[in-house]
Design goal:
Layout (H helix, E strand, L loop, with lengths): L1 H10 L4 H10 L9 H7 L5 H11 L5 H10 L1
């Protein structure tokens, strides 16, 4: 959808502050498939973005996400 494309533009922005802002908004985006973004952003070059992403991932029950959290811990 157009909303998902716009979200993707923000989450892949070269500006770390913009990525961080949108990572922090991810939990409120019901209906969007967050798993691919969480897995992608867990390896972000900015430590603040990674930390925000991992905080969200830690509360997710998906086994693949939990495996990635354990990997990164």
């Amino acid at each position: 959808t157009e909303t998902e494309l716009e979200l993707g533009r923000h989450l892949t922005s070269p500006d770390a502050a913009e990525r961080l802002h949108y990572v922090q908004r991810l939990p409120s985006l019901a209906g969007s498939s967050l798993k691919p973004w969480l897995l992608h952003l867990a390896g972000d070059s900015d430590p603040g973005v990674r930390q925000a992403c991992l905080s969200i991932m830690a509360t997710n029950a998906d086994p693949e996400i939990q495996a990635r959290v354990r990997e990164l811990a």
